[in-house]
C-alpha cells in the first residue's frame, strides 16, 4: 500500500517520546515520499493558555488553532527535523477531545497512516481514564502506528 500522507498526532505531553515519534514518522514517510501532517490537539484550557503565552488573544475570532500551534516550539523543532530529512510538512491545530479530533483530522487530510504516542496503562487505568491512542486505533480510517513511552 502506498503511503501519501502520514498524520503525526502530537499531544501536550509528547516531549519525552518526540525522538521516537519522529523516527517512526520518517520511516513511514521517507521511502514513500509522503507528506507529514503534524496534528497538535489541545483541550480548550490548554489551548487558551498556549495562545496567551504565545501572544494571541483567544477571545479574538480571528485566531485559529493552526496559527497558534505553528508557533509552539515543539512543533517548530519537529517541523525543522522532518524538513531536514527531506519530508514535506503541513501543520494542523485542533481544540477538543484528542481522540475525536485526531480521527477527524486523519479523515480530513486523507491520511494513509497515523502515528500516535501513548503510555503503558493498566486495564483499570484504561477503563477509568480512557486512552486516546486506543480510541484512535479503534476509530481511525487508516492504519495506526503506536509509539509507547517505555517509562511507567
| Known CATH architecture | 3-Layer(aba) Sandwich
- Radius of gyration (CA) equals 15 Å
The stretches of 5 or more residues where confidence is low (pLDDT under 50) are none
What is the strand arrangement across the widest sheet?
3-2-1-4-5
Which fold name is given in CATH as the topology? Rossmann fold
The helix/strand series, from N terminus to C terminus, equals EHEHHHEHEHHE
Going by CATH, the homologous superfamily would be HUPs
Shape: globular
Secondary structure: elements and pairs:
Elements: E1 5-10, H1 18-29, E2 35-42, H2 44-53, H3 65-70, H4 73-84, E3 89-95, H5 98-109, E4 113-119, H6 123-129, H7 132-139, E5 144-149
Parallel strand pairs: 1-2, 1-4, 2-3, 4-5
Helix pairs in contact: 5-7
Task: Tell me what the structure shows.
Belongs to the universal stress protein A family. Residues 4-148 form the UspA domain. It holds the Pfam family Usp. This is Universal stress protein UspA. Helices cover 44% and strands 22% of the residues. It has 152 residues and is an alpha/beta fold. It has a single domain (5-149), classed as 3-Layer(aba) Sandwich (Rossmann fold), CATH 3.40.50.620. Strand 1 (5-10), helix 1 (18-29) and strand 2 (35-42) form a beta-alpha-beta unit. It is globular. The mean pLDDT is 86.
Amino acid at each position: 500500500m502506498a503511503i501519501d500522507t502520514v498524520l503525526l498526532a502530537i499531544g501536550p505531553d509528547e516531549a519525552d517520546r518526540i525522538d521516537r515519534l519522529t523516527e517512526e514518522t520518517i520511516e513511514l514517510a521517507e521511502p514513500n515520499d509522503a507528506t507529514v501532517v503534524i496534528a497538535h490537539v489541545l483541550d480548550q484550557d490548554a489551548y487558551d493558555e498556549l495562545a496567551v503565552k504565545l501572544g494571541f488573544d483567544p477571545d479574538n475570532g480571528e485566531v485559529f488553532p493552526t496559527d497558534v500551534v505553528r508557533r509552539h516550539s515543539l512543533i517548530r523543532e519537529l517541523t525543522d527535523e522532518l524538513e531536514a530529512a527531506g519530508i514535506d510538512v503541513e501543520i494542523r491545530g485542533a481544540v477538543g477531545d484528542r481522540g475525536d479530533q485526531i480521527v477527524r483530522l486523519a479523515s480530513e487530510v486523507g491520511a494513509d497512516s497515523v502515528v500516535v504516542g501513548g503510555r503503558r496503562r493498566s486495564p483499570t487505568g484504561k477503563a477509568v481514564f480512557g486512552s486516546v491512542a486506543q480510541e484512535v486505533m479503534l476509530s481511525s480510517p487508516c492504519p495506526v502506528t503506536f509509539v509507547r513511552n517505555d517509562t511507567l
